[in-house]
């Protein structure tokens, strides 16, 4: 089931996505989660983030359904933060951003690269259309108004590319 949550009163899906992950620390927290970090002290040690900012970001990610807060210790109570399905679905976004960042660097200056876990070969991620397998970053793919588009969005984006 697709969530109908709108974090901001904006129609643009990019604006909605940024409501989930648009803050600097949020993407870095997600990256840590994909690397297996789950606990407050792990995030804080790795990111060197202030306690108040980390608490705020984790609270927001839990409230938005990206992370789930689970107790792992009872005395004193301690929690870990586990990616939900929604959170795991953000991995391609983080991978694409990291790849984009690396593409701006000389290969010798890259501190982290994406590799095939079996072969160790460096991967070059691209975004493709599931139906055709074609890259969607060229001029032959454009945004169009969707079924819920307002008149302003319909003015900005045609109903179809045809």
Q: What's the main sheet like?
A: 2 strands, antiparallel
The CATH superfamily of the domain at 1-86 turns out to be Winged helix-like DNA-binding domain superfamily/Winged helix DNA-binding domain
Distance between the termini: 30 Å
As for the CATH topology of the domain at 1-86, it is Arc Repressor Mutant, subunit A
Q: Helix-strand pattern, N to C?
A: HHHHEEHHH
Secondary structure tally, helices: 7
Low-confidence stretches: 1-7
So what's the CATH class of the domain at 1-86?
Mainly Alpha
Calculate Rg over CA atoms.
Answer: 19 Å
Shape: globular
Number of strands: 2
**Beta-strand share of residues:** 5-15%
Query: How are the strands of the biggest sheet laid out side by side?
Result: 1-2
CATH architecture of the domain at 1-86: Orthogonal Bundle
What structural class results from the helix and strand content?
A: mainly alpha
Q: Determine the fraction of residues in helical runs and give it as a percent range.
A: 25-40%
Mean pLDDT: 88
Describe the structure.
This protein is mainly α and 162 residues long. It has a domain at 1-86: Arc Repressor Mutant, subunit A (Orthogonal Bundle), CATH 1.10.10. The protein is built from seven helices and two strands. It has helices at residues 13-21, 24-34, 40-47, 51-63, 85-88, 91-103, 151-156, and strands spanning 67-74, 77-83. It has a two-stranded antiparallel sheet. A hairpin with a 2-residue loop joins strand 1 and strand 2 (77-83). The protein is globular, with a radius of gyration of 19 Å. The two termini are 30 Å apart.
């Amino acid at each position: 089931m697709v969530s109908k949550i709108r974090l901001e009163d904006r129609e643009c899906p990019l604006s909605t996505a940024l409501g989930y992950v648009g803050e600097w620390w949020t993407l870095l927290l997600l990256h840590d989660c994909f690397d297996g970090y789950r606990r407050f002290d792990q995030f804080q040690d790795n990111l060197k983030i202030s306690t108040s900012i980390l608490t705020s970001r984790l609270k927001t990610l839990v409230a938005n359904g990206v992370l789930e807060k689970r107790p792992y210790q009872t005395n004193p109570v301690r929690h870990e933060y586990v990616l939900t399905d929604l959170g795991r679905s953000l991995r391609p976004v983080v991978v694409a951003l990291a790849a984009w960042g690396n593409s701006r660097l000389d290969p010798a200056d890259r501190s982290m690269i994406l590799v095939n876990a079996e072969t160790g070969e460096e991967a070059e991620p691209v975004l493709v259309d599931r139906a055709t397998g074609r890259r969607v970053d060229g001029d032959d793919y454009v945004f169009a108004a969707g079924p819920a588009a307002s008149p302003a969005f319909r003015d900005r984006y045609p109903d179809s590319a045809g």
